[in-house]
């Protein structure tokens, strides 16, 4: 099992990683999710042994890897650009790591056939990688990483170079392949949908620290902060002051959050999240009015934006300039602390 203990790293005088600690289970898929520059890729390179932390430890089954060079850690790392060898065919690319293990040629050929079948590239062994599509090249790169049977897999934005439709098609396929291999996986991405589709557990990285960790469902239900809710695109974030009756007074009205577990003082400034997927309230517990600024079709309904810049998903399209009146269930309003 991999464990990181209090990892610190700076770049050009700025703190890039500031006390990162985490552990990963035997077959767990974790996603490091954060904006560009949050330190995700640097953390992967430290785990792989390509960079050294300024302080902290990288442990595997309790043993410090500080003196173990990258090529002896038996960790697989796949990058966004695939880094395939253009002068080698598919089989030769996949065989690269196997030859580094000094395996007999017969064993190498068996493993190549096995792994190409796993990534659905049977019959591609002799093809030139330069003749393949982006999705096929991605599968070759994945096969090359998997072939030596690494004890840990790491992915740095592996689908980032693909167009959206192909990326979505490969997400489910990638999770299936990772499940078959039953090794721990660390997956770096800035794409929230990708993280939610692939991960058992998501770690939100911001300003060099893990700000929130949990399953996709846990993060969706309880983002924990205004920053996390905003980054995950969960809805409308408003600031306001707490009232004596538990409501929060904002610039556009007062709202009652659902089941707030914080011990707030009167007039304390707090953030609330109003989910755009409205659950209608029948008793006017959270009433909102606003002029419609924009309407556009979105999936099975309409995304409606008010002049206050709040947005909601509605089944029917109002007219731009219309005064919209909404009764919002308290279950659609959440206190973020």
Overview of the structural elements:
The chain is α+β, with helices and mostly antiparallel strands. The chain has 2 domains: 2-221, P-loop containing nucleotide triphosphate hydrolases (Rossmann fold, 3-Layer(aba) Sandwich); 235-335, no CATH class. The chain is 25% helix and 32% strand. The radius of gyration is 24 Å and the shape is globular. The mean pLDDT is 90.
List keywords for this structure.
2 domains, 337 residues, Rossmann fold, 25% helix, alpha+beta
What is the number of beta strands? 19
Strand order of the largest sheet: 6-7-8-3-9-10
Largest sheet: 6 strands, mixed
Q: What is the percent of helical residues? A: 10-25%
CATH architecture of the largest domain: 3-Layer(aba) Sandwich
Helix count from the secondary structure assignment: 8
Mean pLDDT: 90
Low-confidence stretches: none
Short description:
With 337 residues, this protein is α+β, with helices and mostly antiparallel strands.
SSE inventory with pairings:
Layout: E1 2-11, E2 14-24, E3 29-33, H1 40-48, E4 55-60, E5 63-64, E6 75-78, H2 90-100, H3 105-118, H4 134-146, E7 152-156, H5 164-181, E8 185-189, H6 192-198, E9 201-206, E10 209-214, H7 216-221, H8 226-231, E11 236-242, E12 248-250, E13 253-255, E14 269-274, E15 287-298, E16 301-306, E17 311-314, E18 323-327, E19 333-335
Parallel strand pairs: 3-8, 3-9, 6-7, 7-8
Antiparallel strand pairs: 1-2, 1-4, 4-5, 9-10, 11-12, 11-14, 12-13, 14-19, 15-16, 15-18, 16-17
Helix pairs in contact: 2-3, 2-4, 3-4
